[in-house]
Amino acid sequence: MNNYQCYLNGVFYGGGDAEFMVELFTDYVLLKNMYGKKDCDFRIVRFANDKINGQL
Question: Residue 43 forms beta bridges with which residues?
Fold first, then answer.
């Protein structure tokens, strides 16, 4: 199983499975309309076998 960490503009935004990464992106970009910002930077980091650096 793969776990992921999501960083938004260089700051940890959330962690979990691939489905949750889609949920984070959808919530921020589509539902919240990026809080009125013109751009954002998402970075997704994958970790295999529950080896996560940082806090979930």
Answer: 7
